[in-house]
Every structure is written in C-alpha cells, then in structure tokens.
Design goal:
- Helix 4 runs parallel beside helix 6.
- Strands 1-2-3-5-4-6-10-7-9-11-17-16-13 form a 13-stranded mixed β-sheet, with helices on both faces. A 3-stranded antiparallel β-sheet has the order 12-14-15, with no helix packed on it. A two-stranded parallel ribbon has the order 8-18.
- It is globular and about 60 Å long.
- Helix content is 23%, strand content 29%.
- With 338 residues, the chain is an alpha/beta fold.
Length: 338
C-alpha cells in the first residue's frame, strides 16, 4: 500500500490493507491522504518518551504538485529502507479531489477553513475535509506530550517570487519563534520568513495554536501540473526533510547562523466587493517593493495605499471571494528566537 499511497489518494480508494510494517516502522492508513508512520525501535540516543512528532502536509491546494511528489519520493525511500525513520511521522495530502482535477480547490480555498472556519460556510467537500484534517492532526499531536512537535505545510506559489523559497509563520502572541525551526529553514535554503500579525484560517495556524506545534507554511517555487516539476530545484528542502525524518529536530540542522530575511505583515488587502481591483499587473512577483503613498488596490470607495516608506507585496490575487484576503503587504523586521 505504501508504494501506492499517492495513486490511492488520487483515486480516493481504500487500500486492501490499512496497516502493516515495513523496514523498521509500523504504518497505518488513517483516511484518504493520511498516513501515520512510527518507528518499531528507538534510535540509540532517543527514547519513545523524547521522540519527535513531525507532521508534513502537501496538496492543501490541489494544483501545487511539487511538494506532493517530494513526499511520495520520501515515502518510497522509507518503504525501501533507503531512508530510516526515527520520528513519529504524519503525512497528509490535503485536498485529494482538487489534486485529482489539478485545481487549486473545488469550491472553497481550504487553507482559509481551519481553526473552525469551516463552520462559517455551507457544507461541501472542502469544509468536511478541513474538519477531518483538524481531527487527525489534533489526535497525532495529543498522543504524546514530550518531544518536539512540528508541522510543515508545503506549498508552491501561483506566481513568481523574488524569494523562490520562503516560509510564512503563523501568529504567535509571545512574538518569540523557534530557533530550531529557523536553523532548519536555513539548512533548507529558505531565503525569507514572513511573520503573520493576526490569527488566520490556515492549516499551520491551526496546528500551532490548537495543537502546540512549531508550524510554518513553506512556499517552494511555482505551481505546475504533475510530471512537469523539475525536482532538482528542490534539492535543499528534500535533503532537509530527510534529515529531519532520520535525525529529529535537534540534530537535523547544520546551520550555524541565519541569513534569512524576515518580514512582518503590516496590512491586508481585503476584497470587499466584486469592484476590487489591484493597481498593478498580474505579472508582478511576490516580494515586489512599493513606495509610500502608491495606490495598491481600489474597491469602491476604499483605496489601499502603501503606508510605510517601503512595503513588499505577497500573495496578490484579485480572484478571491469577497471578504477574503486579496494580498498582504510586508515590512522588513527582526525576529526574536527562543
């Protein structure tokens, strides 16, 4: 079943065998696109009580296929014994229906539906799936109270970016972020980190706020169909994930000093009505800079302008539902690590 995990997920078929053992670990199929893997024996320096708990998700947007292919490759190497599992590992392929059709989502952007936001919409596949992923993820992190708890939600962007690999970190009331996580991001050749300024409906905010995990959304290049990804462009993140799976949090990073640029969200461009229009072309890349006073977007009587001497744009997208985020504006900042 493990070698067919992606195929069965795309076909939304229940495997003939739902649990088993393979090359030093036990596995259990939890639901379509949800697989739990646990080591049968502990490494020499790590007991079950101190074992790390790592959730890695991809495909929350169904057309973002490169991370899905990365996880499939890692799973195949675990199954063959080419890669050794030394953490509890939860692999999640977020939106199988959208993956199957090659679309970002079917009815509602699922990465706006977590932390109970799915209850604010009419019942549909994405609201049901978000609720299911919340339940699976919460149960995974609640099983043990010791060891590091991480959730990495892998994405690709719908447009080009001046930073090809960047992380978006969910809002933290303490404003203190994990040094281990930043070291690992550095080892993965992540160029920038964006600190969110408020709670949100993203999967990474749910796992952080409701499950106590160190979480982030990772953006890794541009969205392309299955089979059209050049996975050699993902060498650093692939190696970093494999190190995390084999060595755990404390030993997986070789970074000694972080050179990651850090941005803080300063304002959100919210689409209030169908009159919303961005004041720049669709070809504008993520992390394009704008000067103070420039008009960013209009929406009826509402005008969004640059408020600081310089702001950078992230995720501009006018084609969202009214009431949803149509872009973020950022300023450079420093981060406190703990």
């Amino acid at each position: 079943m493990i070698q067919d995990f992606l195929a069965l997920t795309l076909e939304q078929q229940i495997p003939e065998q739902c649990e088993g053992k393979s090359n030093g670990f036990a596995w259990k199929w939890l639901a379509h696109g949800a697989l739990l893997l646990e080591p049968l024996e502990q490494s020499a320096n790590r007991s079950q009580e101190s074992q790390d708990h790592i959730a890695i998700s991809a495909g929350v947007h169904g057309n973002e296929t490169a991370p899905i292919e990365l996880l499939d490759s890692i799973l195949c190497d675990l199954n063959s014994g080419a890669l050794t599992l030394n953490v509890r590992l939860l692999l999640l392929l977020g939106n199988p229906q959208a993956m199957q059709t090659g679309e970002r989502y079917q009815q509602i952007d699922m990465n706006r539906l977590f932390s109970g936001q799915h209850t604010q919409y009419d019942d549909c596949y994405e609201t049901q799936r978000a609720a299911q992923l919340e339940s699976i993820t919460h149960a995974f992190f609640a099983t043990f109270t010791t060891g590091y708890k991480w959730h990495l939600d892998l994405h690709t962007a719908i447009r080009g970016s001046h930073h090809e690999r960047f992380a978006v970190l969910p809002f933290q009331e303490s404003a203190i972020f994990s040094r281990h996580l930043f070291d690992w991001l550095e080892s993965a050749d992540v160029e920038a980190a964006v600190l969110n300024q408020a709670p949100s409906g993203t999967f990474s905010y749910f796992s952080s706020h409701h499950c106590g995990a160190n979480s982030c959304t990772l953006e890794l290049g541009e969205a392309k169909p299955f089979g059209q990804n050049d996975l050699t462009q993902f060498t650093h993140i692939d190696l970093a994930l494999r190190n995390l799976i084999e060595k755990g949090v404390q030993d997986s990073s070789t970074a000694t000093d972080s050179h990651i640029l850090v941005y803080q969200v300063t304002q959100q461009l919210t689409k209030l009505s169908e009159d919303f229009a961005l004041n720049f072309p669709d070809s504008v890349k993520n992390f394009t800079a704008f000067e103070q006073g420039e008009v960013l977007a209009t929406d009826g009587d509402t005008t969004y302008k640059v408020e600081h001497p310089k702001e950078w744009v992230l995720f501009p997208n006018a084609n969202v539902r009214p009431g949803l985020r149509a872009g973020l504006m950022l300023v450079r900042t420093e981060v406190e690590l703990g």
